[in-house]
Structure formats: structure tokens, C-alpha cells
Amino acid sequence: MNSLISVIIPTLNEEQNIGLTIEQTQLAGKCEVIVVDGGSTDATLAKAAAADVVLSSPLGRALQQNSGAEKATGEFLLFLHADCQVVTGFSDAIVNTLSVPDVAAGCFRQDIAHSSQKYRIVERGNTWRVRNLGWIYGDQGLFLKRDLFEKLGGFPAIPLMEDLYFSKQLKREGKLVVADHPLEVSARRWEKNGVARQTLRNWSFVAMSHMGVKPATLAKWYGHVREE
Fold it and tell me: Whole-angstrom Cα distance, residue 141 to residue 109?
């Protein structure tokens, strides 16, 4: 399938989300949807059948996303978590953002599915992080041109924080920006761990990374592979 945009979705036991995410992606814009499963033991694969391409890969977001990118045919790549839903117009937002000179990559403005004002603070904080530090996390919907992704060799093959390390590579290629277009994001991680605790946890792992703690060690402390 030759589409302008390839949407790559890594999965692990996402039977509750993947069907809706695929449906919303296909309704919101013409694109190629690629699901890369890391060994689900539930009904994820059955519910992912509507995708244009369904692959199996060794477990790990970096490995899964790289596998999906290898099969992608689009000029642009969007890496989307299984519990995030794009909104109509997302494809235009990607093309328009990446057509600006000196922009290497972008992401969307988060719209976390919870009414509490605490989540509005999280959303603003995550936007601030991209604009001021140049760090795009996976649940913001990272997008870039396929040529640049291939030039950089894809995500580093590490078990944790591949998005942060890849962002650092992207910053050397140009600006990282937040498109003024929403991405609907599940609140499940914050609901499970608490907003303050989850935020502190994220920043503590970033700090340890900058202090030189190896990704493999951080992954052991984090719980190795994330199912959020």
C-alpha cells in the first residue's frame, strides 16, 4: 500500500485498545497502518486484523517500531501508542509541520482523557518539555520523514527510553516542534500510579539517564518492558 503517511503501532496485550486505535486512525486520514506485536497472549492480534500490515517482532518498543518502519511505504512516519487516538486532520498537521524549513520532527498536543485539572497541567508540562528541551515521548505521537529516520538508523536498540535517546539524535538534525493538533491519550498510567508519582518517576529516570546510568539498568528498575 502506497500512502503518504505510515502509522506504526507497537503492541503488547492491547486487546482493549488496538481495535479502536486502528479504526480511528483509518477514519481520521488516508494512511498505512502497521501493527507490530511483541508477543501478546491476549486477543490483540485478532483485533489488529483490520490494519494494513500486522507483524511480529521481538519484544521492546524500539525493536518493534524499527521493524514497522522497515515495512513502511509512506514518505512520513508516525509512531503511535496503542492507547492513543489520532484526530481528523492529523495527516495534514504532519505534512504541514514537516514542510517548515529546519524542522526535523514533531509531535501532537496531548489531550489526556480525564477531566481533572491535574491532567491539564501534565499536558502543558509535556508541551513545555518538547519546546524547551527537545524531548518527545512516545505518547505524544512522534512523526518525521522516513528518509531522516533511515539516515539516523532508527531507534536505538535499548530496552527503555528509546524515545528520549532518539530525540537527542533528532535535535542535531533540526527543530522538534509540537503541532497545534490534538492527540487523544489514555490516562491509564497516571490513574494507575497517580499523577504526581508517575511524573516524578518519569523525571527521575531521565535524571538517572543523564547521570550515566545505562538503559539496561534503568529498564530493570522500571520493570523492563512497559505494558502501559
Answer: 9
